[in-house]
Amino acid sequence: MSSEFRELLKKIGSGTHTHKNLTRQQASLALEMMLTGKATPAQIGGFMIAHRIKRPTGEELAGMLDAYSRLGNKLSIIDENKEVVVLGIPYDGRTRTAPISPITSLILSLMGVPVLMHGGRRMPTKYGLTLGEIWTNLGLNIQNTSLEQVQTSLAQKNFGFLYLPTHFPLADNFVTYREEIGKRPPIATLELIWHPYKGKNHIMAGYVHPPTEKMIREALTLTGVKKFTLIKGLEGSGDLKLEQTNIIAIDDHESEAGFKYLKLNPLHYGLKGHDYPLHSEQEYFEQLTKTIKGEMTPLTLSSIWNAGFYLWRCSVVETMEMGLSKAEELIMKGDLHNHCHSLSENLNYV
C-alpha cells in the first residue's frame, strides 16, 4: 500500500462538505501512481469513484495531462509552421449514431492538414464501435504499427493514429479498472484532449455536458494549448449534428474570455437531413465504404456538413460555404477512396 497515495485519496474522498481539490502537481502524481501500479487496486478503485463523485477541476485535469505527457509516447515535430489537428473521440465508442470522423480526417489529411487520432480497444461503459475497428475495416491495420510508422505517415501523408495497447500500454492496462467499477472515470475526459504531439496542436474534441466544456477549456489554458475547437457533438464526439443547431466553443484571443461560442445550424446552409443511426456495424461499414468511393449514401450529407466546417475551421478555405462545396467535390469524385488506399500502401498495410 502507498501511504503517499492514501493521503491524496483521503483529500478527494472525505465527503461532500469536507473534500478538497487536488493541485495540478498532486493530480499528476496521483495518475502516475495509478498508471504505474504504485497505488494498490483498492486505492485505485476508491480514487476513481471518489473523483467521479467529487467531479474533477480544470487544474486537476491539467495535472493528469502532465502525467500522460510524461508517461506516454509523443510524435516528433513534422513542421514547425504546421498545427497538427488532434481529434479527440470518446474511447468507449459509438452505439447509437454512425461515426463521421473517419471521413472528416480523410478529407483534412487529403487537403494537407495533418491529423492525429488516438484510441484503444472496446471499453466501458458503452463498449461501442471504436475508431480502431473502423480503420481496420478500411484496410488500415492501425493496431500493429510501430511508432516510427505512425511518425512517417503523419509526416508524409498527414495522418497518424496512436493505438493504446501498442503505443501507450500503461493507459491500456488501466482499462481493467474501468471495467470493474462500471462507471466512466474522469480519465475519460482527459482522453478527449490528450495531444501526443510535440509541436503545435489544434485540439478538436467533443463533449456532452456544458460543465465538461468549461473544465476542458481551463485545462487547455493551463497546459498552454492555444488553438481549440470543442463541439457538443453526437455521443460526445466531434461529429456535428444534422438535426439541430451545433454549439461550438473556439479560441478567441482577442476577447477577454479567451474564447467564444459558435452556433451552426445546417438549415442556414441549405442542408436538411437526419443523423444516420448505427443500425448495425456491418451496415455502417458498407455505407462508409460506398461513401468513400463517391456513391451517394445516407452518410453523404452529414459527411459534407462535417468536412465543410472542419475545412473552414482549419483555414483551408475562407468560408463555410466554400468548405461545403469543396467537401462535396472531394467526396463525390471518389478522391477519398484513392487517399485511403494511399495511406494503406504508405504504412505497409494489407
TrEMBL record:
Enzyme Commission code: 2.4.2.18
Top-level lineage group: Bacteria
GO cellular component: a single term: cytosol
SUPFAM superfamilies associated with the record: Nucleoside phosphorylase/phosphoribosyltransferase catalytic domain, Nucleoside phosphorylase/phosphoribosyltransferase N-terminal domain
All residue ranges annotated as the Glycosyl transferase family domain in the record: 97-334
GO molecular function, a single term: anthranilate phosphoribosyltransferase activity
Boundaries of every Glycosyl transferase family 3 N-terminal domain copy: 6-68
Pfam families: Glycos_trans_3N, Glycos_transf_3
InterPro entries reported for this sequence: Anthranilate_Pribosyl_Tfrase (IPR005940), Glycosyl_Trfase_fam3 (IPR000312), Glycosyl_Trfase_fam3_N_dom (IPR017459), Glycosyl_Trfase_fam3_N_dom_sf (IPR036320), Nuc_phospho_transferase (IPR035902)
Key words, A-Z: Amino-acid biosynthesis, Aromatic amino acid biosynthesis, Glycosyltransferase, Transferase
GO biological process assignments: L-tryptophan biosynthetic process
Stored PANTHER family: ANTHRANILATE PHOSPHORIBOSYLTRANSFERASE, SLL1634 PROTEIN
Protein's name in the database: Anthranilate phosphoribosyltransferase
Species name: Cyanobacterium aponinum (strain PCC 10605)
Lineage: Bacteria, Bacillati, Cyanobacteriota, Cyanophyceae, Oscillatoriophycideae
